[in-house]
Amino acid sequence: MGSPCHFALFDLQPDFRVDLDLLAARYRELARHVHPDRFADAAEREQRLALEQSAQLNEAYQVLRSAPQRARYLLTLRGAELPLEVTVQDGEFLLQQMHWREELEDLQDSADLAGVASFKRRLKAAQDELNESFAVCWDDPQQREQAERLMRRMQFLDKLSFEVRQLEERLDD
Questions:
Q1: How many domains does the chain divide into?
Q2: Cβ–Cβ < 8 Å for 76, 82
Q3: What is the domain-level CATH number for residue 136?
Q4: CA nearest 139: which of 90, 82, 62, 80?
Q5: pTM of the model
Q6: Among 152, 160, 154, which residue's Cα sits nearest to residue 90?
Q7: What is the C-alpha to C-alpha distance for residues 87 and 109, in angstroms, rounded to an integer?
Q8: Which residues, in sequence order, are CB contacts of 13 under 8 Å at separation 6+?
Q9: Domain endpoint, select from 18, 47, 65
Q10: What dihedral angle (degrees, nearest 10) is formed by the CA atoms of 6, 8, 14, 16?
Q11: Predicted confidence (pLDDT) at residue 91 exceeds the cutoff of 90
């Protein structure tokens, strides 16, 4: 028996646009029901089942709340076979990546907190734009290649965003 679709767990339709507040509320509600502590006095089988359900719920929530992971998940639901390590064969985007990386290194070298904040805002705008583009084309078989390209870009920006937050924390200390 396969595990239920992540979206079905939260009683949502598979779509890229997800109400994150609703997702979080449903997650908290479901997590209370399957929390292993509620089964502390139950039989071993019930405890194990609660632990499995809790783990499955946590994984589904992590995937659906992250735009790049949600995009990848939707594409796999549609039958795309995506390698975990993806290389972006996208010349234009590779140049953009190099530019962002150089800018981030300069900001790190100069310890420019205001510059980091500005960089973060531009990165967020680029992520929002990618998310919107993906939302428009993910479900169209004619645009599968474009959706996969956008998903890879989203993954890169997500990683870059994490690095920006780390830099921000180091500069804040």
A1: 2
A2: yes
A3: 1.20.1280.20
A4: 80
A5: 0.86
A6: 152
A7: 28
A8: 7
A9: 65
A10: -50
A11: no
Residue appearing with tokens 């870009």:
153
- Sign of the torsion angle spanned by Cα atoms 88, 91, 93, 99: positive
Nearest alpha carbon to residue 23 among 68, 77, 57, 61: 61
Among residues 155, 163, 139, 160, which one has the least CA distance to residue 67? 155
List the domain range (segments joined by +) for residue 12: 6-65
Token pair of 17 as six digits: 């646009």
Same domain, 95 and 142: yes
More confident site: 124 or 78: 124
For residue 88, give the nearest of 153, 144, 146 by alpha carbon: 153
Per residue in 21-34, pLDDT (tens digit) is: 999 999 999 999 88
Phi/psi at 139 (nearest 5 deg)? Answer: -95, 0
